[in-house]
Amino acid sequence: xxxxxxxxxxxxxxxxxxxxxxxxxxxxxxxxxxxxxxxxxxxxxxxxxxxxxxxxxxxxxxxxxxxxxxxxxxxxxxxxxxxxxxxxxxxxxxxxxxxxxxxxxxxxxxxxxxxxxxxxxxxxxxxxxxxxxxxxxxxxxxxxxxxxxxxxxxxxxxxxxxxxxxxxxxxxxxxxxxxxxxxxxxxxxxxxxxxxxxxxxxxxxxxxxxxxxxxxxxxxxxxxxxxxxxxxxxxxxxxxxxxxxxxxxxxxxxxxxxxxxxxxxxxxxxxxxxxxxxxxxxxxxxxxxxxxxxxxxxxxxxxxxxxxxxxxxxxxxxxxxxxxxxxxxxxxxxxxxxxxxxxxxxxxxxxxxxxxxxxxxxxxxxxxxxxxxxxxxxxxxxxxxxxxxxxxxxxxxxxxxxxxxxxxxxxxxxxxxxxxxxxxxxxxxxxxxxxxxxxxxxxxxxxxxxxxxxxxxxxxxxxxxxxxxxxxxxxxxxxxxxxxxxxxxxxxxxxxxxxxxxxxxxxxxxxxxxxxxxxxxxxxxxxxxxxxxxxxxxxxxxxxxxxxxxxxxxxxxxxxxxxxxxxxxxxxxxxxxxxxxxxxxxxxxxxxxxxxxxxxxxxxxxx
Length: 607
What we know:
It comes from Ruminococcus flavefaciens. This protein has about 600 residues and is of the alpha/beta class.
């Protein structure tokens, strides 16, 4: 149901329901139920056209006796009258809407009526005389009360059936309906069949039976995601935060798509983000809107993740952590992480993050397949020549701003442009100029390309021989422009072979001499350890063998790789070796990758 549909259903219950029972609104903790009741339903019911109904909202959290509910209801109703009639001091009428009910007793004593001194029995009599006509009694946190649930439902049923009170119960019913899954095995046509049955606890069964008499309809609550987020943001009245509207709901390609499961944590994230924005304004720290959005989204997503795993740790030696945010465009900033956990923030930490984020965005795919120009180019097989020429012109112009098109797309742009130039025979002088701009934009950026975004990892074959040769030459120019430096690998001697493989794979492999990589891995020695390696380690090893440049291998190193490949092939033929199907798949991929790369290198040499 939408908010409007829930509003209409509840209004119909108030006006026409004669069942003498309550209705229930159930949803997860932090899902926005209270927000809906207090900001959407309450104002809707109070409208003149809807009958000007009042909502009497009472939380049962921590209450241990039904008489306490009566007292809370009375207190809530009396607060209506105080606000309306200004029965206390002049200022009391102004602040009554924000005075907590837990201090209401003390406030009322100023006019000689101390509710705290009234006995439960007397209070019950006072409550019995209260008129709840034209009012919806909203009882929240049913699952958090200390009152026996059967006793509570009896109390509710008595009010609805005997007193004609209209009641909305707001709860997380899953916390009441405790159950376990029971496995049932039975024979069917000579075969054993397993079924799984949900078995409710004894208290849950009693609750279900009592609920049948007390509750007529149960509404499954689903919040209006965008409206709820925007309303939360509006409450903070912060210009920087207001510019973040829509950024969480905007569709985009990210590492993990986060779902907002707890709006209370969104409120916390908003507060922390506003604190940071205000700090930046105080110390005149300037940043663009993308950085400020990153602050907000990183905090929102991180706090949602913490609900599932409160022990999440920030990545070592890093200013940003996209894993903790789950969003490649808006990672969690280290200074935000520390501010949330330790309430400490420094100007230096923010300035470092701003500089790092500006550079980081160059390598992140901000638009992906939503980029209108790249979408046309990548769909060249079904595009028109006119649309392709327009896209090529746009790409040419946009490359003047290095942050406009992610560098991660550069290899694919080159690949597709050469297909157009040679296989499709397209004549467009901007093709070569675009490639020149790409090479210039990549200059000196080699160390920024890691395992997840190295270039030319996946390409489409160019059929034209001349085009294929030019593609090979351009790849060489690109890598020369990137200026990969062949550094010496320094690894602690204490690392075992598996750790060495993982460490090298996680680094920028192109910065190392391939002959030294193979020597450090010690292929001739690790073959005996292969069965002990995890599938992840084998994947790291395959990545290393795929990434190294076979043109730079010495004869001894190449012979070592080929021998390693042959020994893996023999290993795969042995049935007594403890290798699961995934490890065997990884090893077969390693063999195929080595054979393919050697063949491709030999074919290039022949040309």
